[in-house]
């Protein structure tokens, strides 16, 4: 590549990546604050049900992503890549900002979760149209033989968006008091979105259309009906199904296990301090992000298939040992308590019914530096359930062990996710590429991946209620089974020679 052409593609990468990163930030800020949002938009009398409802609302955004892929993919193949993902950017940013403006459940009742659900669905539709456009746009600017490398920059945006969402939350928590953050400060990361979207819009507004699409349009080779040409054509439909069941389905569950499920697992099952989880997850993501570029580059040299399948196989084999190690790291029964530092505080607190609930606060310290804090609320009304909130703050050694455990999972993600944009783009011809690649990607990630936090959390809770000694590992069966099926199909049917270069 010449210096001029390199400069040109970096401009494309920068504009596309920034917008896509902001969309991922918008999409994932909801998941990053799931524990807090469950107390704001859902009834507080059953915290477990409220958290599951929040995860279900989070998952709803994923479920509609395929519909966004169909709607915006069709537009992208008819009117062009540029204007389509300009529209998705504005839709996503507007929905995210408005989530930060919705009054709480205490203020407007069931209207609160309903409004959140509607805006969450709009987010899903927007993201369904964004990714395919950005990946296609970059790939159609990249030279032959380097598409894996250049499109891998787009692949980093999902993880970087999650990282920035965590950093925005941590920064807001550090600036505000815990009371201020709980009262209104959690809204700030949602409000910040509108500023980032505006900046990205200004940058994208000056971008040129993809040269491949512009050439096809000039020659009259675009599709008049991308949906029919994508899914009504048996030959093309075969590749759509192969992309879904042989690649994106497994990639989706590994992505969400290694990042979102890991976060929810540490916050809910392990009861780690939320800020500490955000910090260690942020470090792991920062360390792991360069490997998306590395595996994208490597896929140009040795092919996409074995890198993606290798990531799936490692995840299948190592998830249970990894999560068992994570869980046992903070297991209090394995630690020595400093009995003289144990403190118990009892107080009475007035509730909404003007009666007084009993609040028991327990603080325990352990010889390795771990601190345990528990607040038990015993309602005056004996028919109501006792509420227990536990928080563990870990020592530096344990924190770095957990960073390493999450980092390993991010490596699995990088292996399956780094090469997949180039893999998908190369499967389909330009006139139906936006539509054809978007649907399997968003079904794999939106349906199979997006449902993972809710399904896995439910399996853990169900296993705990059933008295399973290793209940905390039950949630891993979902990604392990899905990834295993995808691995088998991918190994049998995917061609590693990348002969299907439709660019």
From TrEMBL:
Presence of keyword Transmembrane: yes
Sorted UniProt keywords: Cell membrane, Membrane, Transmembrane, Transmembrane helix, Transport
Coiled coil residues, start to end: none
MF terms in GO: transmembrane transporter activity
Superkingdom in the source lineage: Bacteria
PANTHER family: MAJOR FACILITATOR SUPERFAMILY TRANSPORTER, SHIKIMATE TRANSPORTER
Protein name from the UniProt record: MHS family MFS transporter
